[in-house]
Specification:
six-stranded mixed β-sheet; alpha/beta; about 425 residues
């Protein structure tokens, strides 16, 4: 799969690179050698990751990340996003131009037919205009330098916009996480729960683009909230058991005020376990202070009141060498079966927000999820539909959702597939329990 994706991206890079090269050579005829050199260097920078993925699958891309300085690696990924964004803008502009040409070509023909119909004249071909006898003697018009300048500027505009937005997205991916606040109503008589806070971190992806310094920033941002309980909704590791050391370092540094840290499994914990085992990953997380919940729930006592904290496993079929996983419906039934129906709020952790389709008909108060990274490139949201080119289909991509009193919040994540975030900053969610 990764090899096919790398091949597709390489082909797209080649086509878009050829378009940019030809346009720049036409716009800057006096600087063709410079254009050739810049285009070749730029294409080589951004094509390397996709080429390695096409040749050596994911291991080739991983090797590049391991042996390349973070600055250069992030620059290459930013350049890749710039080219893909340029391709998107170029395609939209090309479709708009084609539509305008079609409308202009259709308008005179429509007007002529309407005029003939009103006169009752029979349809007949219009005589062709005779060529002007002196057409060959008409002198060539002088070159309009102002128009040429505008053409050159327009040629540069799309690539410049794509580069500016993508490189801005690279910088945005390293910014301090924003805090998204969410209120969860609880019964008024449960006064010990009023004001209790839960901080959620998700999709850290320790490894690529997530070094110790960045992890310390996330730790400090979480601790600065002074939340009573911390939860992590999966994908703390990225792809290898070697990332467990930095992951547990982060966990040990977290300081929830009530001392409780809960964790649910994400798909990347299972990916990392292929280099070790699921028990080894879970043991490391638990030794660092996390309560790893897999299709189970725990009672959290706070003063004279309580809340229920549960989590379900990542919804996927087990691969060879992995333990069999329960279907989502069975996992939900098992976790909720361990929560007494005593009026206390029920909070469920689920890495994949798609499980809310099944959970929204069950007696839960709030589901906390991640997995989507908010799409990393956000164009807004219409109703429950998030607009993002990275996740073109499906619901529950980012933010808060509600269905008949059942609530879901999808955290936009702290890490990413690529080190680019546009209108979708890294996030920490802070849930506060308030009287209903």
């Amino acid at each position: 799969m990764y090899q096919l994706l790398g091949l597709v991206i390489t082909l797209v890079n080649g086509v878009l690179g050829l378009i940019i090269w030809r346009r720049l050579r036409a716009a800057l005829p006096r600087h063709r050698r410079l254009v050739d050199a810049l285009c070749a260097a730029g294409w080589l920078l951004l094509a390397t990751p996709a080429l390695l993925m096409a040749v050596a699958s994911f291991s080739g891309l991983r090797a590049l990340h391991r042996h390349t300085p973070d600055t250069l690696s992030m620059l290459a990924m930013g350049a890749q996003m710039s080219l893909l964004l340029y391709g998107l803008l170029y395609s939209v502009a090309a479709v708009a131009r084609a539509a305008l040409r079609a409308l202009r070509a259709r308008r005179p023909a429509t007007s002529a037919l309407a005029a003939r119909a009103s006169d009752g004249a029979a349809a007949a071909p219009l005589p062709a205009a005779a060529p002007h006898p002196a057409a060959a003697d008409v002198p060539e018009e002088p070159v309009d330098e102002r128009r040429r300048t505008l053409v050159v500027a327009a040629t540069w505009a799309l690539p410049a916009a794509a580069v500016a937005v993508s490189m801005g997205g690279v910088l945005a991916s390293r910014q301090r996480p924003v805090v998204v606040r969410l209120a969860l109503p609880v019964r008024r008589e449960m006064t010990a729960l009023h004001g209790v806070t839960i901080a959620q971190l998700s999709d850290v992806h320790v490894g690529n683009y997530m070094d110790a310094e960045r992890l310390d920033e996330l730790r400090d941002a979480m601790n600065a909230l002074r939340a009573d309980i911390h939860v992590i909704t999966g994908d703390l590791l990225d792809h290898h058991v070697s990332q467990l050391e930095l992951s547990t370092r982060l966990l040990r540094g977290l300081q929830p005020a009530r001392g409780q840290l809960f964790f649910c499994m994400g798909n990347h914990e299972y990916i990392a376990a292929r280099s070790a085992s699921i028990p080894a990953i879970m043991k490391g997380l638990e030794e660092a202070g996390a309560q790893v919940l897999v299709d189970e729930a725990r009672e959290v006592r706070l003063g004279g009141d309580r809340l229920w904290m549960g989590a379900i496993d990542y919804p996927s079929r087990a691969r060879p060498g992995e333990p069999a996983r329960r279907p989502t419906v069975d996992g939900l039934a098992r976790a909720l079966g361990q929560m007494r129906d005593d009026g206390a709020p029920r909070i469920l952790l689920s890495h994949h927000p798609g499980t809310f389709r099944a959970a929204r008909e069950l007696p839960i108060d709030l589901m906390l999820s991640g997995h989507t990274h908010g799409g990393q490139i956000s164009l807004g949201r219409i109703g429950d539909y998030a607009l993002t080119p990275m996740l073109p289909g499906g619901l529950y991509h980012n933010g808060h959702y509600e269905h008949r009193g059942r609530r879901l919040h999808v955290n936009a994540g702290a890490g990413g597939w690529l080190p680019v975030r546009i209108n979708c900053p890294p996030e920490i969610t802070l849930v506060e329990l308030v009287p209903a």
